[in-house]
Amino acid sequence: MHEAKLCLSLLDLAERRAAEAGAARIVAVRLDVGEWSGVVPEALAAAFPLCAAGTRADGAALRIERVAGTDLVLREMEVE
Amino acid sequence: MRVHVIGIGTAHADDAAGLAVAALLASRPLPDGVLVKTCMRPLPDLLDALEGADAAVLIDAARTGGVPGAIHRLAQGDLACLRSPSSHGLGVAQALALAAALGRAPARVELLAIEASKTGCDALSPAVAASIAGAADAALRIVREVQARHDAELRDA
């Protein structure tokens, strides 16, 4: 369930950023997932649409880049 | 098999019904393999409470328009239309869907809802308070039923 909880906190962060930017909707989210972050990208991808339901990111596309290192980073998002 | 009995709710008025049932169950002798847990918010707390469970019995307050204190046994599909005082219904459905998407949902999930009254104060309403013991008995019956079915499946296998 680790990925579901990470996903919820990532969306929380994304929603706060979108609110600060005055954006009504988050269209796409790009994450960097470190190879040693302990995060399974497939699980994150499975959790994302369910976590995003009912938020500004409802229906948003998720792009996951596998990178070196141990970090999980909300790299970029597209809003409107 | 591990069965988690999970009371969902907050400390506010009838919203605490699930927590009160869990507290009562925790004070009683329980069958082997049964763990009583509580959670305040379905997301993310329910995900933690479900972790490691083969089956789960969830107890929550609900507002379906029925008589306060009434005990409903629900199917998982009924969750979306469950209107609990703090709209846990949707959160519970979402948490279960998430657990399923991650392949971590218990094989069986049973739901018990206690009809909340419309008026809110700090404590449980008398109607709901009077139903707590009955709901605890009902939860225990469901646990035994789940365990019996599991044992029968093991025998047949």
Structure characterization notes:
The complex is a heterodimer of chains A (80) and B (157). Chain A is α+β, with helices and mostly antiparallel strands and 80 residues long. Chain A has one domain (2-79): hypothetical protein PF0899 fold, CATH 3.30.2320. In chain A, 39% of the residues lie in helices and 30% in strands. Chain A has a three-stranded mixed β-sheet with strand order 2-1-3. In chain A, helix 1 crosses helix 2. The longest helix of chain A is centred in the N-terminal third of the chain and has 19 residues, at 2-20. Chain A is globular and about 35 Å long. Chain B is of the alpha/beta class. Chain B has one domain: Rossmann fold (3-Layer(aba) Sandwich), CATH 3.40.50.1450. A five-stranded mixed β-sheet of chain B has the order 2-1-3-5-4, sandwiched between helices. Chain B is globular, with a radius of gyration of 15 Å. The A-B interface holds A 1, 3-5, 8, 43, 46-47, 50-51, 53-54 and B 43-44, 47-48, 50-51, 90, 94, 97-99, 101-102, 104.
Write the layout of secondary structure elements.
The complex is a heterodimer of chains A (80) and B (157).
Chain A: H1 2-20, E1 26-34, H2 41-52, E2 61-67, E3 72-79
Parallel strand pairs in A: 1-2
Antiparallel strand pairs in A: 1-3
Helix pairs in contact in A: 1-2
Chain B: E1 3-8, H1 17-26, E2 34-39, H2 42-50, E3 55-62, E4 71-74, H3 88-101, E5 108-115, H4 126-129, H5 132-156
Parallel strand pairs in B: 1-2, 1-3, 3-5
Antiparallel strand pairs in B: 4-5
Helix pairs in contact in B: 1-5, 2-3
Assign the CATH topology of chain B.
Answer: Rossmann fold
How many H/I helical runs of chain B?
5
- Roughly what fraction of the amino acids of chain A lie in strands? 25-35%
Strand content of chain B is 15-25%
Tell me how many strands of chain B there are.
Answer: 5
- Widest beta sheet: strand line-up of chain B: 2-1-3-5-4
Q: Roughly how many Å apart are the termini of chain B?
A: 15 Å
Number of strands of chain A: 3
Which whole number gives the mean pLDDT of chain B? 89
Average of per-residue pLDDT values of chain A: 93
Give the number of helices of chain A: 2
Q: What are the low-pLDDT stretches of chain B, counting only 5+ consecutive residues below 50?
A: 83-87
Supply the number of structural domains of chain A: 1
CATH architecture of chain A: 2-Layer Sandwich
**Order of helix and strand elements from N to C terminus of chain B:** EHEHEEHEHH
Portion of residues within helices of chain A: 25-40%
For this structure, what is the CATH class of chain A? Alpha Beta
* Secondary-structure content class of chain A: alpha+beta
CATH superfamily of chain B: HybD-like
Helix content of chain B: 25-40%
